[in-house]
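TA notes, week 10

Several of you asked for a full example with nothing omitted. So below is the full record: structure tokens for the whole chain, then the designed sequence directly under it. When grading your own attempts, check the secondary structure regions first.
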């Protein structure tokens, strides 16, 4: 059996296990349909509150102006600044927003418009919340001791500060999207005042920008002027110190450089040239000397000197003649032999040329040696002069270091002075350009309609809040839903057969006019009718409307007993419930009347000895009943009453306050004998027993019962209680034929079923159940 501790939607059968959907849409729709009244009530309540709010609220008007922060406004007055990053732009706009919200700007607007004497600003119309706050403040001020009266100046300043605070409260400043535009809006109950204050805020902001720029530039100019005077004096003092130091240390200079340094530089240049000349002369001398040292023959063979190395053309001519003579000698020697006279003559001429070339080479070598010695002597002289001058300069190195330090300081002060002088000139020029970096792009206009309260938005919000509250209330009601509503609850919670619904008599749906024999409805089934109606009227509901849902449910109970006890001639059926007042006595009476009207010999026993509801519904109180018959005081047959119309036999109970052990009486041998005798005379014995739970009468009588009809009240009896009571009595549970839901509101039943439940389609069977009472019976009942 399916056990549940909490049935969130016990009235709606669970979805099949093979469903893949996370949310059961059918169940949600069923819940909304069922709780539509609660949701509608919440919506109506919130809409009513919204309407009251709209009626009591004072209309507020909003005027709007837009200010563009534009740096290009000063492009002709200032040097073009580098492009700002997006973060810098955001910071600039955020700063402008905070300036507009500041108390300083609010005070400027108050002073400009003389708002410290404006009653609309100082004492605006108060709503309910403000009235409560002002009342609390008034009480608190009355309870606290007062101070000395404020002076006129303090009072004026207090009104001024209060007006500024009220402006800040009613002011709204925000950036328009991602642009450089700032929207300034002011709310007031006075349309003209809202426009006037908004325009004053724009003017005050522009004036504040101009004044701020002017003041900053003026302060910078004054500070720069002071710094310039100081830097000028310090720069002049540093230059004088440099000149004085040069004079004291003999550090003369020309063209910005010391004389000694210039001389040393010149000598170094001359030394470099002398060294180069000496090296060149040495190279030529060594070359010619090596040639001469080889002798005449070697000198002639190695005398191949280019004209670029010497300007002596004699050697070149002699060399040319020598080569020509050598070539002719070789030709004649080859052709005529070495002893040929011409060959001998040519050799003699060759030797003479060799001697002449050697002499010329010796003269050139001597000349180059002299040049080398002169260049070397000049180089040595320059080196000596450089050493002498360097030694002299080393003595003034410390003075030069000190001089360099003084010159650097003087140069730095001069550069700093020139930079500050340029900045001072720029600041002085900017003072003459009164241009703000902002402009108004949307003038503040006079509002034509109130901005608050917004009727459409307020009502829409009220509807939304009402729906949310209705949803919360619906969820709370569904969480509290722990009662039997539909057939599926009985099967899933109790694991028992469901026999049907007994409608709530006295509140009948339109399709069941059978329960409305006249304009005043029949009394609602209960253990004791409030109007003292007779037993005949209560038990004949099933007879007055044999084609009603009421009768059909009891027929289903009879069919269940016939199926269960097929082949058995006598049947004892007990009618029980979990709580008193669930209508088990009415159910037992009508069930017995149904059996009797079908021709079955039926006995109805009122075995609820402590609260005999059936007996109290009789027209005349009985003199003898079940207790006297069990005890043997009277024959049981003499205590039975018979209904003349249905032939239903009724065994009532006479109230006896001295009867304490009712359970023992029902389990006694006398009761057993009474039931055995009754089984022989009747086909059906319907026993109205006490409710289960702490009362044990039904448990004591259970062995003599063939089957039980369990009656529970629709939407009232907790499911956990019924389940626990039934599970606690297995000897009763195994005999239960089925469960009947009594006092069912058939108009609400369909709301507790899903779209596949039979309860939702109950209206389809109206033609099968609708039946009017006979006119004669109506008049007789009336």
């Amino acid at each position: 059996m399916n056990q549940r501790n909490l049935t969130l939607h016990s009235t709606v059968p669970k979805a099949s296990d093979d469903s893949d959907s996370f949310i059961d849409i059918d169940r949600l729709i069923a819940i909304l349909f069922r709780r539509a009244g609660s949701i509608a009530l919440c919506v109506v309540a919130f809409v009513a509150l919204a309407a009251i709010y709209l009626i009591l609220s004072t209309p507020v008007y909003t005027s709007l102006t837009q200010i563009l922060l534009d740096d290009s406004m000063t492009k002709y007055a200032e040097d073009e600044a580098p492009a700002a990053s997006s973060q810098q732009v955001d910071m600039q706009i955020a700063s402008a927003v905070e300036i507009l919200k500041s108390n300083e700007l609010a005070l400027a607007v108050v002073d400009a418009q003389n708002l410290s004497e404006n009653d609309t600003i100082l004492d605006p119309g108060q709503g309910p919340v403000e009235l409560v706050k002002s009342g609390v403040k008034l009480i608190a001020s009355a309870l606290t001791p007062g101070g000395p009266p404020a002076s006129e100046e303090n009072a004026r300043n207090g009104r001024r500060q209060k007006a500024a605070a009220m402006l800040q409260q009613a002011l709204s400043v925000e950036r328009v999207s991602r642009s450089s535009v700032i929207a300034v809006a002011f709310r007031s109950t006075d349309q003209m005042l809202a426009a006037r204050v908004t325009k004053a805020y724009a003017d005050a902001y522009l004036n504040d920008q101009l004044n701020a720029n002017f003041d900053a530039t003026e302060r910078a100019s004054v500070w720069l002027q002071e710094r310039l005077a100081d830097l000028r004096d310090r720069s002049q003092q540093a230059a004088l110190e440099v000149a004085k130091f040069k004079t004291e240390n003999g550090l003369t200079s020309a063209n910005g450089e010391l004389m000694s340094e210039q001389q040393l530089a010149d000598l170094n240049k001359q030394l470099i040239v002398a060294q180069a000349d000496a090296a060149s002369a040495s190279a030529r001398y060594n070359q010619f000397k090596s040639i001469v040292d080889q002798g005449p023959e070697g000198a002639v063979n190695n005398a191949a000197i280019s004209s670029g190395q010497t300007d002596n053309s004699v050697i070149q001519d002699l060399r040319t003649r020598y080569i020509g003579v050598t070539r002719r000698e070789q030709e004649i020697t080859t052709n005529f032999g070495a002893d040929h006279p011409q060959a001998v003559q040519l050799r003699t001429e060759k030797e003479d040329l060799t001697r002449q070339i050697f002499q010329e080479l010796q003269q050139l070598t001597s000349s180059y040696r002299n040049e080398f010695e002169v260049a070397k002597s000049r180089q040595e002289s320059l080196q000596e002069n450089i050493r002498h001058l360097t030694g002299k300069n080393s003595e003034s190195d410390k003075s030069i270091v000190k001089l360099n330090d003084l010159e650097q300081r003087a140069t730095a002060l001069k550069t700093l002075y020139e930079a500050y002088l340029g900045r001072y000139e720029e600041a002085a020029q900017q003072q003459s350009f009164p241009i703000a970096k902002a402009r108004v792009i949307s003038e503040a206009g006079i509002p034509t309609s109130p901005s608050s309260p917004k009727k459409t938005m307020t009502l829409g919000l009220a509807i939304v809040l009402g729906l949310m509250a209705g949803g919360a209330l619906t969820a709370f009601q569904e969480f509290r839903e722990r009662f039997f509503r539909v057939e599926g609850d009985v099967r899933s919670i109790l694991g028992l057969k469901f026999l049907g619904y007994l409608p709530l008599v006295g509140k009948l749906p339109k399709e069941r006019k059978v329960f409305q024999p006249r304009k005043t409805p029949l009394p609602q089934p209960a253990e004791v009718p409030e109007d003292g109606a007779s037993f005949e009227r209560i038990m004949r509901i099933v007879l007055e409307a044999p084609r009603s849902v009421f009768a059909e449910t009891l027929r289903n109970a009879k069919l269940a007993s016939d199926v269960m006890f097929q082949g058995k001639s006598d049947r004892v059926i007990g009618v029980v419930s979990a709580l008193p007042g669930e209508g088990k006595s009415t159910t037992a009476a009508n069930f017995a009347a149904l059996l009797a009207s079908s021709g079955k010999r039926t006995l109805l026993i009122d075995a609820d000895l402590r609260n005999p509801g059936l007996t109290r519904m009789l027209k005349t109180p009985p003199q003898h009943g079940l207790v006297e018959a069990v005890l043997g005081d009277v024959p049981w047959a003499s205590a039975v009453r018979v209904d003349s119309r249905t032939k239903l036999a009724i065994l009532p109970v006479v109230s006896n306050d001295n009867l304490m052990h009712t359970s023992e009486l029902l389990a006694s041998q006398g009761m057993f004998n009474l039931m055995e005798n009754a089984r022989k005379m009747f086909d059906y014995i319907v026993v109205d027993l006490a409710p289960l739970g702490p009362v044990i009468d039904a448990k004591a009588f259970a062995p003599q019962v063939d089957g039980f009809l369990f009656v529970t009240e629709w939407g009232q009896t907790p499911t956990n209680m019924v389940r626990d009571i039934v599970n606690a009595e297995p000897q009763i549970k195994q005999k239960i034929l089925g469960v009947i839901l009594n006092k069912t509101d058939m108009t609400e039943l369909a709301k507790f079923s899903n779209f596949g439940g039979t309860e939702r389609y109950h209206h389809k069977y109206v033609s099968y159940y609708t039946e009017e009472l006979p006119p004669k019976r109506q008049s007789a009942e009336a």
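Residues 259-410 form one domain. Use that as a sanity check on your answer.
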